[in-house]
Amino acid sequence: MSRPTVWHPFTQHALEPTMRRIAATDGAYLIDEGGNRILDAISSWWVITHGHRHPRIMAAIRAATEAYDQIIFAEFSHEPAEQLAEGLIAIAPPGLKHVFYSDSGSTSVEVAVKMALGYFHNRCEPRDRIVVVEGSYHGDTIGTMSTGERGVFNAAYEPLLFGVDRLPFPAAGFEQEALDRFEAYCRGGRVAALLIEPLVLGAGGMKIYAPSVLAGLKDIARRYGCLLIADEVMTGWGRTGTMFACEQAGIAPDILCTSKGLTGGAVPLAATLSTAEIFDAHWSTDRRKTFFHSSSYTANPIACAAAVANLEVWRSEPVLERIRDVEAAHRRHLARFEGDPRFIDIRQAGTIAALDLAVPAGGYLAEAGPRMRRLFRERGVLIRPLGNVVYLMPPYCVTAQELGHAYDAIDEVATIVLECTG
Ligand SMILES: *Cc1c(COP(=O)(O)O)cnc(C)c1O
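Above: inputs. Below: predicted complex with pyridoxal-5'-phosphate.
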């Protein structure tokens, strides 16, 4: 078999020899070179919020290219970065006062962990443990893999991953166990921060937990002087029904990571927001207390301009109403699967809907993955199940009818796949 020049992410090229070439994007659709439209039911890996190529965001990008390309962000600044920082602080949970830019979700989390450790280091408090929730995903760099769930995805790198303390997933009925475990870790005195995906564990299988758990964890963190890092990379920008998922728990984290929907999904950008206390722990005439982090493309002006335009979209368009419509459409369509023995654990958080295919445990699923994706593609829908978890996370411009098409595809594909396992 010939080998491709382009090495694609999370792709076993020996099993998936061809990639469908996309020629254009439009609203809720990818359009291939043959002009076929594919409903992007997972927002191109969760980044597209309003829809592909929102006119206002694309216009802002075009305008920015008339003035800027990359500008070194040490020693210098620019209006899009400053405007965006002001805008982010205005909509973020209270207490977040500073914005540090990077370029992906993973780096925003790396930055957050470094801020937390730097905070305690600069205050000469020896705290070095990070607490995470079992089943979490925080990115694919060595640092973020260390904080995420271990498995076949990172077995090769295991010797280099650092140790973290893990809380059991706070499933309904098991909330107190997670809270108690966190408090026990905190009593040890070495916990610097709890790093957590608020309300929904995304890549871990769209696992949803109660907002009250997040509030309880925050309360414990506060009592023991630990920081809470909210990884809102997936949950931010309306995904779970509110601008940030933390809002539903009524909490403000000490550090907040945002990336995917920050530019509406048009171009890469990330931001890590921190409280004044964390910034102030790095504020010193002693250069050794500097926050030592940068990436070449920090605060790219074109990306910042796209994000400023995204904020304007949120201000001037009925985005939350669209989100309510998507939520209602999910609810109506999911109802048809209630009591259906082919599915277990039908669930929804805002614009995210998920249901687990009732397949026997074992190696079968690994084989079924590419096949299910192909069956969905043949039906004109982009859906990528996570193991046996079939989920939809569409852009907010999707119509109830288009979602209906995605649910029809799930209905058909589930039958085909389950027949073959029996
Ligand atoms: C996607 C994701 C990341 C990593 O973001 P990248 O931009 O892919 O590096 C981190 N945390 C969460 C919760 C995510 O969903």
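The mean pLDDT is 96.
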